[in-house]
Design a protein that fits this description.
Distance between the termini: 34 Å
GO molecular function, one term: hydrolase activity
Protein name: Putative hydrolase
Helix content: 25-40%
Keywords: Hydrolase
Pfam family, one: Abhydrolase_1
Shape: globular
InterPro entries: AB_hydrolase, AB_hydrolase_1, AB_hydrolase_fold
Radius of gyration: 18 Å
CATH superfamily: Alpha/Beta hydrolase fold, catalytic domain
Strand order of the largest sheet: 1-2-4-3-5-6-7-8
Largest sheet: 8 strands, mixed
CATH class: Alpha Beta
Number of domains: 1
């Protein structure tokens, strides 16, 4: 018999063990995974370009799931979610809102990375009441300098990776020095820890549509980020080749009261390279 109501015996706190679930809203069936203790405000994870549920670093999710209800999901047309990927960030944000409401939540914390951070910014500007706390990592604002060059960098590094039979993320997320290569290798190994019930890979068409949406975001009119009142934590590496690190500083200047962490000697995946420092920082930020 379970005598402790706070931590039921069957509580899942390892992302690799989180069951695959689905919920339908607006004609789309969204694939998601949840873990951690239920109750309280959930932390919803917004994933990056070309990513599915299998792309979240367990060393980031697992520590957060020890005392927070964590939900990761595939946006429309990605992985095991049905429908087609929208070619604009705003429509992706609308889908995220539908997904959150379909699960019955009217207040969430958001943890976002890269493309996910663009979606999160659009969502919070238009639906401020939905977000209690906001975490933006490896991302940049609408109209941000050189965001429209992401596609070129992505194709170049994907080609480099193909030629060397490596995961493109090793090139895109990490510096190609000894520290970066070590971190990249460890990160890719961690992503393989889940062995059963893995997600469907993203299709080439979905990936290309996401790139189109990012390009549009980079060329669009800057949003009024002073509207963001939710406490915001911003993080990146100091050498982000995908979404230039200066854009994290730009977000920090424009979002009142936000906090900024720039990790030295790391790239776009700085939070994954420095997971041992970043996960405790996130927990402290959420608990405040």
């Amino acid at each position: 018999m379970n005598t402790n109501n706070h931590t039921p015996d069957n509580l899942i706190t390892a992302y690799k063990d989180a069951p695959a679930r689905t919920v339908s809203a607006g004609g789309v069936t969204y694939a998601f995974r949840e873990l951690g203790p239920k109750g309280g405000i959930p932390v919803v994870f917004f994933v990056h370009l070309a990513a599915t549920l299998d792309n979240w670093d367990p060393r980031i999710i697992d520590p957060i799931a020890k005392n927070h209800h964590v939900i990761a999901f595939d946006n429309r047309g990605v992985g095991a979610s049905t429908g087609t990927v929208p070619d604009g960030i705003e429509a992706m944000a609308d889908d995220a809102v539908r997904f959150i409401h379909a699960l019955g939540f009217d207040k969430v914390d958001i943890f976002s990375f890269s493309l996910g951070g663009m979606i999160a910014q659009d969502l919070v500007v238009r639906h401020p009441q939905l977000v209690r706390k906001l975490i933006l990592t490896g991302t940049g604002p609408a109209g941000g300098k050189n965001i429209d060059k992401v596609a070129g960098t992505t194709y170049y590094d994907t080609l480099r990776a193909t030629l060397t039979r490596r995961d493109p993320k090793e090139f895109l997320f990490f510096n190609r020095n000894a520290t970066g290569k070590r971190a990249a290798h460890a990160f890719v190994e961690r992503l393989a820890e889940r062995t059963t019930d893995r997600d469907m890979p993203i299709t080439v068409r979905a990936f290309q549509t996401q790139l189109k949406a990012i390009k549009k975001w980079g060329r669009s009119t800057p949003a009024d980020l002073s509207k963001i009142t939710a406490p915001t934590l911003i993080a990146n590496g100091d050498n982000d080749r995908m979404v230039p690190s200066v854009l994290s500083e730009d977000l920090h200047r424009r979002i009142k009261g936000s906090e900024l962490i720039i990790y030295p000697d790391s790239g776009h995946g700085g939070i994954f390279q420095n997971h041992d420092k970043f996960a405790p920082t996130v927990l402290e930020f959420l608990a405040r």
